[in-house]
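thoughts on both lines:
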Amino acid sequence: MNSNRDAALDAKRALKDIEAAQGRTNAFAFYDSAGPIVFVWGVIWLLANTLTYFKPQAADMAWLTGIAAGAGFSMFFGWLAGRRNNSGSSLPKSLLAGLAIAGTILIGLNAIGLAVGVSTQQQANGLISIAVATAYILMGFSRGARMMVLGVAVGAATVAGWLWMRDWFELWMGFVGGGALILGGVWLWRT
């Protein structure tokens, strides 16, 4: 009787070990897919924020170009990840999904901006940076702790820049926020 109970406990432990291993495998597969996307967005933050700081009149064009490039790269890398994982997703489906997500985010951020009274490029930058940090933190709950760590790093950089580097906020977010994304992308990608 004891041996049956021991066997049942061993089986339960083995199932828990298998579930834990599957969770780690899923997290690492996600990191591998997300790494290049996060890296590209880090480069965009670096370039667009730096250009915004030095040539404020070019900020809209810098961000419009950067966001379009980032969305395109994100959709492409997402499609590649789907092909690697045999999800059966076609490129047109991936593009439509990416455009739907981008449109939803754009509408949501504009609604929040209107509700809280965002009136400057710097305020918009801070709001978007905090939204990105929050999204990464929330993603960390389901996709793995590294996303949460990345979100905390971007959020901390945003708050620190807003509180102590306001005169150089765009430059700060370019190098510190963008740098966090670049390093985070490499960290995710190379797991």
